[in-house]
Amino acid sequence: MGTYLFGGTGESLDPKFDALSSLLDAGTFARVEQLGVSDGWRCLEVGGGGGSVANWLADVVAPAGHVTVTDIDVTRLEERDNVTVLEHDVVSNILPGNAFDLVHARLVLFYLPARDLVLRKLRDALRPGGWLVLEEFDCLPLEVLSVGSSGAPEDAKLIMRVKNALLTVLDHAGAELAWGARVEKALRDAGLNDVSGSREVQEWEGGSAGCRLLAATARLVRAKLPLTDDEFDRYLELMASPETVVSSYAMCSAQGRR
Ligand SMILES: C[S@@+](CC[C@H](N)C(=O)[O-])C[C@H]1O[C@@H](n2cnc3c(N)ncnc32)[C@H](O)[C@@H]1O
Fold it and tell me: PANTHER family, alphabetically (predicted)?
């Protein structure tokens, strides 16, 4: 197991999970619904984080279906009648084989140096015909589109400096910055069938869920960012200002069946 860079905040209301849920849940739910998920499905949600996807799945597959949700940090996950919460490291712990109709992981393999091995473990956890859905970022597209008129060139440069510093920290921790760009091919290489994928770049305005996510992740690694306190405070202001617009990380998703 690697050490998860953003772990251990100890806060039950982690702003990062709130931002992820606001930013991504609607797309995740639509994608998974298209696969026909319904009453009776057995689902595995890997690295479930704040639990929003696991809780939604639990409602969709009730009453006969079941969701197992795993994470190395289960403090925000909720046991329910048809939900089992498992403290589990997907790199080093075993998973049952041929067990699930759906395995879903969002922004988990991105961080794991052993992502290709983990992908094969997730494949093997599927029953024949079951679906694997991965949703991942390609961080490279993020660019500044506009900032407010006061001090604009410096502000745009500051946003790009923070992006580059953040990506360096992630890279050193073992993340694959453009993993999203190769996730569809990785599913094919793992021998899955009916593979398809999508990639979306949006505009994130200051104060939106996307910019809240950028601010929350920067705060989590503040000590590793080569910025003065004034620069960091200015970055947080920019991430909250509606005058800021950046092109987002590309949100890449891919699905395939065993
Ligand atoms: C960026 S968060 C994504 C959370 C959730 N999937 C979402 O999209 O809202 C990454 C999650 O992966 C979990 N994680 C990191 N390393 C893990 C590992 N080796 N095994 C299982 N979960 C892991 C983290 O604890 C965290 O909850």
Answer: METHYLTRANSFERASE
- For residue 72, the model assigns a pLDDT of 97
Mean pLDDT over each residue of the chain, to the nearest integer: 94
Overall pTM > 0.85:
yes
Range of the domain at 46: 10-257
Q: Retrieve residue 119's tokens.
A: 């992908």
CB contact at 8 A, 108 and 50: no
| Whether the CB of 86 sits within 6 Å of ligand 1 | no
pLDDT in tens, 188-231: 999 999 999 999 999 999 999 999 999 999 999 999 999 999 99
- Centroid of ligand 1 to alpha carbon of 34 (angstroms): 24
Specify the ligand 1 atom closest to the Cα of 2: 19
Q: How far is 45 from 73, CA to CA, in rounded Å? A: 14
| pLDDT the model gives residue 1 | 45
Q: Given the CA of residue 89, which atom of ligand 1 is nearest to it? A: 20
CATH code for the domain of 201:
3.40.50.150
Residue 5 lies in a domain: no
To test the pocket of ligand 1, the residue of 72, 77, 220 to mutate (highest count of ligand atoms within 8 Å of its CB) is 72
- Pick the range with the lowest mean pLDDT from 4-18, 22-36, 173-187: 4-18
C-alpha dist (Å) from residue 220 to 15, 162, 169, 217, 233:
10, 13, 11, 5, 14
Number of structural domains the chain divides into: 1
